Amino acid sequence: MDMNSVIMITQFFFTLVIGMYFFTKLRNEKSDSETLANNSKKEAEHLNCMRHIHLSEPVTETARPKNVNEIIGQDDGIRAIKAALCGPDPQHILIYGPAGVGKTAAARVALECAKKSNGTPFSKNAKFIETDATIMRYDERSIADPLIGSVHDPIYQGAGAYGVAGVPQVKEGAVSKAHGGVLFIDEIGELQTCQINKLLKVLEDRRVMFESAYYSEENKKIPTYIHDVFKNGIPADFRLIGATTRKPEEIPEAVRSRCVEIYFNPLTRDNIEKIIYGAAERIKINIEQNAVEMIARYAKNGRDAVKILQMAKNIIFLDDRRNVTLDDIAWILKACHYTNGYISSDEKIIDISVIKPK
Questions:
Q1: In a 3-state reduction of DSSP, which class is residue 180?
Q2: Spatial contact of 243 and 199, defined as CB atoms under 8 Å apart
Q3: Which of 104, 178, 209, 228 is the most exposed place for a label (fewest CB within 10 A)?
Q4: Given the DSSP bridges, would you call strands 182-186 and 128-132 parallel, antiparallel or unpaired?
Q5: What's the number of CA atoms in the CB half-sphere (13 Å) around residue 61?
Q6: What domain range is 225 assigned to?
Q7: Which pTM was predicted?
Q8: What's the CATH code of the domain at 174?
């Protein structure tokens, strides 16, 4: 066998091996694609089924104030919020007050009032973005920052299109989502110092600037809009409304100096009774006056009163009744270990079972 024959046989062998390799690879890719498509279809069907399952709306949501007149016991506070937010020059706001007195609801309805005020910069589609500082995670490397926004460098993106191409990906934070509207931060006093400093910078610049070691103006693989983001930032022109149960002196002076400070009062017993009657009307149940008075004696705030009322609603539903009685409320207070105005395992629980209707 001459040399040419050996070379031809060798070439044929390698061609066959390479052909089998690519054939097997294409077949595996096709199989993977089919598997992915089938899994995707199953997950889509599962997600669609989940979206068709709806539980009833909690009474706490049904009873949430929808307009200014439904917020009880905070007339001065509401007037102050409207004065700060309505008109051509809305301001940043800090709301102090105990939990469950209507701070969040007041902020929501105040924005709706502001949209209708003369000369307002808020459009009718202005967003109300609500966040909670107590659950807002933060990463010092800026890998995840739901408040300000973050840059996902390629090393953290995995096999995504941008990651493979070496393109940093920008994720908007709450400050940018609130652009043109209101950013409400509940328990704003719980933010870390670094978060507060970044927030103050955004309030000053009205935009969010990003940095990344993987970004280069000369990189033509980077999409135009990402170049724009790194060059000009993402707009974040909003009005901040922060709510807190802390004392004013516990809030950083840099935040306080930029905001109108408004104080919400603790609810009186009469205030809580009005909240109970309003909630009972919305959820379409009847409640005896002495039962309302009993709830008002033991509830810590409006939210707590509505929770007791929700339990009472479930009780009369189980008994096929429409009226909430004093005995129903007495049983709830005893079963849930309510003391006079507080829930406490350390204090002696009074024997509510001996209470009789007047």
A1: coil
A2: no
A3: 228
A4: parallel
A5: 4
A6: 74-263
A7: 0.78
A8: 3.40.50.300
